[in-house]
Specification:
The structure holds two protein chains of two kinds. Chain A has 22 helices and twelve strands. The chains are: A alpha/beta, B alpha/beta.
Chain lengths: 609, 653
């Protein structure tokens, strides 16, 4: 689910100047700087061609046409043709020069962002919705590429064109030049002002459209709940309200647009009209040649866009700066440096947690630590079940072992080696995990399972063995067997099927240490028994921590650790804990959490069965 | 928002790059064909009893659903009909406005050829007329443009609101069976990225496209009027121009399609990595992912470059044609002016008009692109809207019989000769009869695909039976109004989806008018109160924001609190306790025994602990009820259930 309102999830960075933000693009622009510069020069040249055409026109009107000299007309026509061909050619050259290099800049920035994101810690990803990251990797980068292709170059080019154009106008007829220049500056200012407020409205419309999209997504994803409770009406009301808000914003945008258009259409026309009248009077008085007037009006027309564009271009640069800020906001998040220790424990010692403490980095400051000094030793080859009330931190504890989160205190050792000294890769090579919510990637069943053995993958035989352990016999019934595509882009499997594949993935690499988070929750009784039997074989020579919600899962373990109040409250065999710990009894067989004679006797009754 | 006076120099915020319909974060269109089996009981798995024998292509595998011919035209017409008056008004404004815009060069010609000689003769009337005309037209064109934009925006925004609403309401009305086959991703894509591409056309292109075409017609007519020979020369240039546009379009469609496929692949990979960052890290996928992403990214880079170059090629050709025509007209015109065959002012007017005529042509290609993608989107939407809901609302709802005082709150459920098969053929439930007396708690067990969920969905009227009737206190479900139906039957499913908003809001979905006390009471009854109050903002914690870490089990408890609050006569639990731990499960059972006492309940569970509270157990296999009795009877019978029960007993302490 994407949260469309960026500002709530993303920490606001202090606003920096536009130029400062854009200068940060330099490392990516550097490789293409020559082409970019040449393209600007070519574009200036092309603009000049269109400014020269009216001059040729003037020469023709005042020269050969006046003199009734058809030969001169041919020369002029040829010149116009030549300039026209040059203009078209130069435009082509300009675009050709930068098309691929700038697409390359976009691609390089995206690649770097992706690689950076993969290495940011899990808590960063907890904080940022993937939609937010995605919009930085797509929309913002597109804006930046367009900035390099257009505003950056055309601020220079159109600036130059305006200067050259007005220079030409002034040399032709300074009075007319002044008349035309009059609206230019207010027009630029108005456009830039307009574009800023328009960009604000556009951003708001985008956010609202995003909210609307979220609502639509949810009402599709949650359709069963909506139908089950007949809540169509409240969804529809929320939908109506949000579409209405979006409508308001869009109409506001249209109003802004209509105002600026009215100005853009009217102001220059009035100036040109004034120039036409004054020019006509001067021509009548023979102070000005007819050719000059024609050339003048034609040049004025050619200058309209460059003048209007300055405001737009400045505003776009502003927007690009925002895009750059958003991009670098993510890139600037430091990757916690990884140690490169690859040592293996000299002696088998299993997993040791010593005084491990943990709190989520984004937890509100007043809340207590989630884990407050965990001491636990899992002997080599032993399977330890981890039991605790809902929300007590079992899953968080399992995330500490492969260092998906970093413990805020204490240390964890594997066979005597402090995991803090191991590189992430080495650590995760040693420790395999099956998560509570099994995620499959868009790939074949084979690839999804084999990735459990690390980047090297696993052979067919290992995959088959792992699938057998997890009782994934359904795989053979899939359309393409092992090669059936699953995940977002493929066949959707049931919860139980996904869970079994995730389990196969965890055991395929014959890891030394295994962490299973409630691995059998979605299985039916029959399958659960089969998986357990097979899993026992695997667990025999693996050191494992298994989060368990029910007695059947606990049966996999040699010993059980009870997690309560952020500490390990008790360790022992299932029977020991049932006898000694009221809380454990409560978690495993229900009843009341307090010492309750009735519950106890009921329990003993069932024990005696 | 670009000036119609823009030359390529003005390369407006590079339009060619904007229409990228595949860019939305819902990349559902990238589904490979045949990826669509979704439901637990996948239709047509093997069973060859399909109606249409042979290779039947499921239309749901494609994005475009079968729709009556002209569906999109009819849709367009029905969207615009309520705004017919505004559309006509806007059209008239635009016609007048364009006329005002195009008067300018005509006045220049008049000034040069008539007003200047007149001034020389001491008569200023003509020039004054020119001045008034020019300035008047300038103001008129600006003012009319303003009015036109506003009217057009009203129409297009109203149309968008209408269209969004139709899709939304229709999607909500369509039955679950449609949702399961069409997949949420595609439905979301219809409602977001397809609407977006229509919005892009309406907002940023359509009026300009119309203006370009309209001004082209005006200018051509004026040129022919000013001088038919030169005018004809201009007309001749339209031929190659047309060819250039067509060839660009042909290539661009291909290039843009490849680019949007490429970006969709990039987006899928990106989203998948970020959403699955835990397994990515745990299984050291970073390096392989880098490589896979670099490959996808490079493919997009190439496709992107191709698309941009395609645009560049078009710009060069259209510019060349335009400039050659201008040169030809200047040459021929000047030649004739020199020869006295034409007035100078007319030549000046030609030069000015041609500039106006050809300037927007660069962007024409882009408009056509966004027009095409909008048309494609409209077709997909029309296909969706043409789907008739298979579970329609009754036209004349029948109310449920009133409950007498002191009677149990539950209601009787009867399946009367019910049979259910997917439309694609596969029979899920052969004809059967079943009666559940009011207040009975029935557990349904069986392997995946045995038809348990289908039974539940028929009872919740997510589906209608293929044959037969499902009755609630003697009333067929199909005859119940929606509100009555939901007061009667509520279903809690396995996927405990939380809507964005607070925890309290998520619970009140059960009963929107519930007070905070009632919400808390429901949470307490189900044992969810403690963990909810431990959240950063308690009941007001936003489930999508920081600190809102809610585990699968906790989500199921919230879903349950919802059902408690709804307080239905019949409650269906479809694997609704799978992620709960033992105390959670017991809280549910406790609630069934107290708060929900006397309700009719159908419980589907793979965990037999839930069965303990059942009055009756149904064992299903391959769509049939093979065992039916009280738990004690079935255990004694030594049938399938007895075996399951034994396995479960063994798994316990």
């Amino acid at each position: 689910m994407t949260s469309p309102t960026s500002d709530t999830t993303a920490p606001d960075s202090p606003h920096r100047s536009t130029v400062h933000s854009l200068v940060r693009l330099w490392p990516y622009v550097r490789p293409v700087r020559v082409r970019l510069a040449v393209s600007a020069v070519v574009a200036v040249a092309a603009s000049c061609m269109s400014l020269f055409i009216p001059l040729v026109l003037k020469w023709m009107v005042d020269g050969p046409v006046q003199d009734r000299d058809p030969g001169g007309v041919w020369l002029g026509g040829g010149l116009v043709l030549l300039l026209g061909l040059l203009e078209a050619g130069l435009f082509g050259v300009r675009r050709w020069l930068v098309a691929r290099p700038l697409a390359g800049v976009e691609a390089a920035m995206r690649k770097d962002l992706y690689e950076h994101l993969q290495r940011l810690p899990v808590d960063f990803h907890d904080r940022w919705a993937s939609g937010q990251l995605l919009s930085r990797a797509t929309m913002d980068l597109q804006i930046l590429r367009m900035f390099l292709a257009f505003p950056l170059v055309f601020l220079v080019v159109n600036g130059a064109t305006i200067l050259i154009g007005f220079a030409i106008l002034f040399t032709q007829a300074w009075l007319l030049g002044l008349v035309l220049l009059a609206p230019a500056v207010p027009l630029m200012i108005l456009c830039s002002y307009f574009e800023t407020s328009y960009a604000l409205a556009a951003r708001r419309a985008q956010d609202q459209a995003g909210d609307l999209a979220t609502l639509v997504e949810e009402s599709v994803l949650g359709i069963r709940i909506i139908k089950a409770f007949g809540r169509h009406r409240s969804q529809a009301n929320a939908f109506r309200r949000q579409t209405r808000e979006l409508w308001d914003t869009e109409i506001h945008k249209a109003r802004l647009l209509s105002n600026i258009w009215a100005v853009i259409m009217t102001l220059p026309e009035i100036a040109i009209g004034a120039a036409l009248v004054i020019g006509s009077l001067q021509v009548a008085d023979h102070k000005l040649s007819a050719g000059t007037l024609v050339a003048f009006l034609s040049t004025a027309l050619a200058l309209r866009w460059p003048v209007e564009s300055i405001g737009f271009l400045l505003a776009m640069s502003n927007e690009s700066a925002t895009a750059a800020d958003r991009y670098f906001e993510v890139r600037d998040t430091p990757v916690v440096s990884d140690t490169d220790g690859t040592g293996a424990g000299a002696r088998p010692d299993g997993i040791r947690l010593e005084g491990v403490r943990f709190r989520y980095p984004d937890a509100p400051p007043h809340t207590a630590e989630l884990l407050r000094g965990i001491d636990l030793h899992i002997r080599p080859g032993e399977t330890m079940a981890l039991v605790g009330a809902t929300g007590c931190g079992k899953t968080s504890l399992t995330a500490l072992l492969p260092r998906l989160h970093r413990a805020t205190g204490g240390r964890i050792t594997l066979d005597g080696v402090d995991t803090a000294e191991l590189s992430g890769d080495r650590l995760r090579e040693l420790v395999a995990v099956a998560f509570e919510e099994p995620t499959l990637f868009s790939a074949s069943v084979r690839e999804n399972v084999a990735m459990g053995a690390g980047p090297a993958g696993a052979g067919e035989e290992d995959v088959r063995r792992a699938l057998a352990v997890a009782q994934c016999d359904f795989v053979d019934a899939l359309p393409q067997g092992l090669d059936t595509q699953v995940g977002e882009q493929g066949l959707s499997l049931s919860g139980g099927q996904r869970q079994r594949l995730a389990l196969a993935r965890a055991v395929v690499g014959r890891p030394q240490f295994l962490v299973l988070d409630d691995p059998l929750s979605a299985l039916d009784v029959h399958t659960e028994a089969l998986v357990e039997a097979a899993l026992r074989e695997v667990l025999r020579d693996t050191t494992a921590l298994v989060v368990a919600h029910r007695p059947s899962t606990v049966m996999l373990a040699d010993r059980v650790a009870l997690l309560a109040d952020g500490r390990i409250a008790a360790v022992g065999s299932h029977a020991d804990l049932l006898r000694d710990s009221a809380e454990y009894r409560y978690l495993m067989s229900g009843g009341t959490p307090e010492h309750d004679d009735d519950a106890l006797s009921a329990l003993e009754g069932s024990d005696a069965r | 928002m670009t000036s119609s006076a823009a030359t390529e120099t003005g390369a407006t915020p590079d339009t060619p790059d904007t229409p990228e319909p595949g860019d939305s974060p819902a990349p559902a269109d990238a589904h490979p064909a045949g990826s669509d089996t979704d439901t637990g009981a996948a239709p047509g798995t093997g069973s060859g009893s399909g109606t249409g024998a042979g290779a039947v292509v499921d239309p749901f595998d494609r994005d475009i659903l079968p729709a009556p011919r002209n569906a999109q035209l009819l849709l367009l017409r029905s969207l615009l009909r309520p705004h017919a008056r505004r559309v006509w008004t806007a059209a008239i404004y635009l016609l007048v406005q364009q006329a005002a815009v195009q008067v300018g060069p005509l006045l220049v010609a008049y000034a040069i050829d008539h007003a200047i000689p007149a001034v020389r003769d001491g008569r200023h009337g003509a020039l004054i007329a020119v001045a008034c005309g020019y300035i008047g037209c300038g103001i008129a064109s600006g003012v009319l443009q303003r009015v036109f934009i506003r009217i057009a925006a009203r129409v297009s925004q109203d149309v968008l609101v209408d269209l969004r609403g139709r899709i939304f309401r229709h999607a909500q009305t369509l039955s679950l069976d449609f949702h399961e086959r069409y997949t949420s991703g595609r439905l979301i894509a219809r409602a977001t990225s397809d609407v977006e591409s229509i919005r892009e056309l309406l907002n940023d292109g359509l009026d300009e496209l119309i203006e370009v075409v309209l001004s082209g017609i005006y200018i051509t007519a004026l040129l022919l009027f000013l001088d038919w020979k030169l005018g004809l020369l201009t007309l001749v240039s339209y031929g190659p121009l047309y060819l250039a546009i067509r060839s660009y379009q042909g290539r661009a469609v291909e290039a843009y399609r490849r680019r949007s496929t490429a970006i969709a692949a990039v987006i899928v990979k990106f989203t998948e990595t970020m959403n699955g960052i835990r397994p990515v890290k745990a299984f050291r996928r970073e390096q392989p992912n880098d490589e896979a992403f670099a490959e996808l990214n490079a493919r997009h880079y190439r496709a992107n470059g191709d698309a941009i170059l395609e645009m560049a090629r078009y710009v060069v050709w259209s510019r060349l044609i335009a400039n050659i025509t201008i040169a030809g007209i200047v040459l021929w015109g000047a030649y004739r002016v020199a020869g006295g065959g034409m007035a100078l002012g007319v030549l000046a007017a030609f030069v000015l008009y041609l500039r106006r005529l050809y300037d927007p042509i660069d962007r024409l290609g882009m408009f056509l692109n966004s027009y095409q993608s909008a048309a494609a989107s409209l077709e997909k939407i029309a296909g969706l809207l043409a789907q008739a809901p298979t579970v329609p609302e009754p036209e004349q709802p029948v109310p449920l019989p009133a409950r007498g005082e002191g009677v149990l709150p539950g209601r009787e459920v009867v399946f009367d000769e019910v049979r259910f098969a997917y439309r694609t053929g596969g029979e899920v439930l052969p004809t059967f009869d079943l009666r559940i007396p009011a207040g009975q708690i029935v557990a349904v067990v069986g392997a995946t695909g045995a038809g348990k969920s289908t039974l539940a969905k028929l009872l919740a009227r997510f589906y209608d039976p293929t044959d037969g009737r499902v009755l609630l206190d003697g009333v067929t479900l199909c005859d119940l109004g929606r509100d009555d139906l939901r007061r009667g039957v509520v279903m809690v499913t396995q996927e405990a989806f939380l809507f964005s908003g607070t925890v309290a809001e998520n619970i009140t979905i059960g009963r929107p008018d519930a007070t905070r006390e009632e919400v808390e009471a429901a949470a307490k009854a189900i044992g969810a109160h403690d963990f909810i109050t431990a959240l950063p903002d308690g009941y007001d914690t936003d489930v999508r924001k920081r600190g809102g870490r809610i585990s699968a089990g906790q989500r199921q408890l919230v879903a349950f609190a919802r059902a408690l609050l709804a307080d239905p006569a019949v409650l269906i639990l479809d694997e609704a306790t799978s992620s709960l731990d033992v105390p959670g499960e017991q809280a549910v059972q406790h609630a069934m025994d107290t708060v929900l006492r006397g309700r009719t309940a159908v419980i589907i569970a793979h965990r037999l602990s839930t069965v303990e509270i059942a009055d009756r157990v149904l064992v299903m296999r391959a769509g049939r009820v093979i065992e039916d009795g009280t738990p004690a009877e079935l255990i004694a019978d030594d049938g399938h259930f007895a075996g399951l029960h034994q396995a479960w007993q063994d798994s316990l302490v």
